[in-house]
Amino acid sequence: MKMEDMSLSGLDNTKLEALAHDIYADLVEDACLGLCFEVHRAVKQGYFFLDETDQDSMKDFEIVDQPGVDIFGQVYNQWKNKECVCPNCNRSIAASRFAPHLEKCLGMGRNSSRIANRRIASSNNMSKSESDQEDNDDINDNDWSYGSEKKAKKRKSDKNPNSPRRSKSLKHKNGEHSNSVSSDPYKYAYNSGISYETLGPEELRSLLTTQCGVMSEHTKKMCTRSSLPDVDGVVENDGYDVPDGQALMSRLQWDGSSDISPSDSASSKASTNNSDSKKPKKKKKPSLGLNSGTCGGPGSGSCAAVGAGTTGSGGGGSSQGSLGLPSRKKKPKLPAPPTPSIYDDMN
Amino acid sequence: MHGNAMKRVNMSKESQMRAAINQKLIEMGERERLKELLRAKLIECGWKDQLKAHCKDVIREKGFEHVTVEDLVAEITPKGRALVPDSVKKELLQRIRAFLAQHSAL
Questions:
Q1: Does B92 map to a domain?
Q2: Opening angle at CA A200, ends A255 and A206, nearest 5
Q3: Is B20 part of a structural domain of the chain?
Q4: Where are the domains of chain A?
Q5: In CATH, what number is assigned to the domain containing residue B35?
Q6: Where on this chain are zinc fingers (SGF11-type) annotated (chain A) (predicted)?
Q7: B22 contact A CB<8A
Q8: Does residue A47 sit at the B interface (CB-CB below 8 Å)?
Q9: What counts of helices (H) and strands (E) characterise chain A?
Q10: pLDDT tens per residue, range A67-89
Q11: pTM of the complete model
Q12: Which letter does DSSP use for residue A63 in this model?
């Protein structure tokens, strides 16, 4: 179309092309002339040859183009593998590791204080009988410190046996006697001065008629609150006769691990089954949160353990009821089967 | 005779056209832009350094006290024209043609 259109402003394509070339030629000539003027002015002003010196200096500063060397001829990592002597510990350290080493060696720098604090905290933890879980949390909070140290700290804190949350596994920190229920499948250790398994039924009866006998989860000790002579009183064990003693024994053996949850239901049902009369007499039974209601004496906290084994009938109900809440957390861990067994025994 | 007259007319018409186009090129600032573009490209490709080295030779040859512009121009320009790389030439021509195509239709 362009070829045919002669009236395109009077110029056909060839002419346009020629015109383009002419314009281009003019532009190139302009560039050349510009350069000439520039050079001529530089020569006349005397700065044209300023970048040149004598031949010797020119050779010295010539551009270097060798591999492994920069443009000045210098080697890049010349000092990388050299070793420096630490002024503090007089050890020979590699140059690239020198600065971090100094930081640790002199005890300055951001990491050193953190690590030192960690060490102090963890050593405190180890020496304490019962540590707080928060200390371990603080230690574990430093995510960004040196990996090896962090792992070391974590391992330490992981192995900390004093944490109360470890109570689920077999821990014998109470240290009185070895645990009685090592064979306990539910991982609840019952340590006390007295082992329920080893006691005979007669001994048990005598024991439980005089003392509360509830095993504490935390301290694994038996509650030694003396029982009151009142038959209708708080002491639930009054209702235990010989047949109950057998039931008690079997329940005790099984209950080495049980938590309160079945005992809660057990207690409520037990009370209905066995001693309805005892129910109203239970003080503070509905108040689940009040441990002091039943085993308040020697340590209300200590009675917060599984009391299912010790409370056969409704007598145990209140103590169980009050103890229900704290040990309820262990509820999900316990499978259902224990529950029916109580009823079997009771019946 | 007619042919000659026609040629003259055509030529003048043609030269008129060319003059008009050139004028437009300048007025629209396109020429300046093209000039800057060319200069940048020549520096980039090393053309300027090459030519400067040649200048040094010429100056040393002529004696740098007495070198004149004319001397330089006479020596440098032909070499300069020849040393322009093909890529630069093509790009510039492309731009010029584009301009002509856009603006030649008055």
A1: yes
A2: 90
A3: no
A4: 12-79, 81-121
A5: 1.10.246.140
A6: 84-105
A7: yes
A8: no
A9: 13, 2
A10: 888 888 888 777 777 888 888 88
A11: 0.40
A12: P
